[in-house]
Design brief:
Mean pLDDT: 79
Number of strands: 0
CATH topology: Amino acid/polyamine transporter I
Shape: globular
Helix content: over 70%
CATH architecture: Up-down Bundle
Distance between the termini: 29 Å
Strand content: under 5%
Radius of gyration: 21 Å
CATH superfamily: Amino acid/polyamine transporter I
Largest sheet: none
Low-confidence stretches: 1-19, 168-193
Order of helices and strands: HHHHHHHHHHHHHHH
Number of helices: 15
Length: 406
């Protein structure tokens, strides 16, 4: 959930279809879907091309995934119109039952949490690379990643994340800076073949991580003044094709430059002393720092709703109100502290992406497929296919991440 502006936050938090008159234009919907997907995933597509065994298999898998990505968005728009809900978890709860709804909320929280870890890992890697250019040996204590990241979290990220409403606009220059930086580099062409046909599936976690905007799609659809399903289909196709083009070009140029030696974070493959790279790192770092509080806000709001619903079910109506200030600050502090610890000790962002990709499969494949199981036979077939593909991606991504960590 990257690159979300103040307008996007309002969409994601809108409680119901009738809360305010919808007025989002088609162009605005395409733009918000696009910027909800684009972000840290840009750094990982070159690595995904390498993991898949080369350009051709990676592009084929990306195009195959595009079919499911677009149909998933269309299904979610249809489900939102049928259910009358304006949030992803609300749609799942109404159409699939309270049990699946709780599973969706848990997956949403874990997804936001792991995305927060990935954000901090990206920022930490960029800071470490810049500090690595310091010629002093041994390096000063204040350049240690554990110190710099702790200072960043305590004095910048936590104050931005603690308020009830997050009012932050991310840096729009990030995409332009990274794109220019990648395009001006000298390209080295090479041809690679996958070591195994199974290697082509390694690209799926990065695709799920990079293209995930499905959590926000329901609220975006409900905010459009033209909620015709065919119109929403055009919006979904346009946004996903634009996203696919940007990711493909980024992955292609990064892979042609570094080949199989590309890092999971492509910026880490470039020298730390290059001024263009330093500018790119700074722009990307500012973007991540400003969008982290938004991710935390989304996860925290679901935790508070989950807390409140469980209190009502268990008859604990007199329990602490999760919306109280001290509870919000405590949840924010715990979220920042735990994500920081994981980001500092995770050896490679590639492992985080595999976990996120596996969880994202629920939102892109499995939950939309569940909606179709309640429909006609032909739609049921596609729903079953979508669920099976999502289950495969979840299992493959999660098991691969676990095996790599062992």
């Amino acid at each position: 959930m990257e690159e979300v502006s103040r307008e996007s936050i309002g969409l994601l938090r809108k409680p119901s279809l009738d809360a305010s008159p919808p007025g989002l234009s088609s162009v605005g919907a395409v733009f918000i879907l696009l910027k909800s997907a684009l972000g840290a995933g840009l750094l990982n597509f070159s690595w995904a091309f390498s993991q898949a065994g080369g350009i051709t298999p990676a592009l084929i898998m990306e195009l195959v995934s595009l079919v499911f990505l677009i149909t998933g968005l269309v299904i979610l728009g249809y489900a939102a119109s049928v259910s009358g809900q304006s949030t992803y978890q609300g749609v799942v709860r109404v159409l699939c039952g309270p049990a699946i709804g709780k599973l969706c909320e848990i997956c949403f929280i874990v997804d936001m949490f792991m995305i927060s870890v990935a954000f901090l890992k990206v920022v930490g890697d960029q800071m470490e690379k810049c500090n690595g250019s310091v010629s002093t040996v041994p390096q000063p204590w204040y350049t240690d990643q554990r110190f710099t990241m702790s200072i960043l979290c305590v004095f910048i990220i936590f104050p931005l994340s603690a308020p009830r409403e997050i009012i932050v606009c991310s840096a729009p220059l990030m995409l332009a800076g990274v794109s220019v930086f990648l395009f001006i580099k000298h390209l080295v062409s090479s041809i690679y073949r996958p070591s195994s046909w199974l290697a082509v599936f390694n690209v799926f976690p990065t695709i799920c991580f990079g293209f995930q905007c499905h959590e926000a799609s329901v609220s975006i659809y409900c905010s459009m003044y033209n909620q015709n399903l065919s119109h929403w289909t055009i919006v979904s196709v346009a946004s996903m094709l634009a996203c696919c083009l940007i990711y493909s070009l980024t992955g292609l140029y990064g892979f042609l430059t570094f080949g199989d030696n590309v890092s999971a974070d492509v910026l880490m493959s470039y020298p730390g002393s290059d001024i263009t790279v330093i500018v790119a790192r700074f722009l990307f770092g500012v973007s991540i720092v400003t969008v982290y509080p938004i991710t935390l806000l989304l996860g925290r709001s679901v935790i508070q709703d989950f807390w409140l619903s469980c209190s009502n079910v268990w008859g604990c109506g007199e329990c602490v109100d999760p919306s109280e200030t001290w509870v919000r600050v405590l949840l924010t502090g715990l979220w920042v502290a735990t994500t920081l610890l994981l980001a500092l000790f995770v050896p490679d962002i590639g492992e985080v992406i595999k976990v996120i990709g596996g969880i994202s499969a629920f939102f892109i494949f499995i939950f939309p497929g569940e909606h179709l199981l309640l429909q006609r036979l032909c739609l049921i077939f596609w729903g079953v296919v979508s669920i099976l593909v999502g289950a495969f991606i979840f299992g493959q991504s999660t098991s691969s991440a676990i095996l790599d960590l062992l």
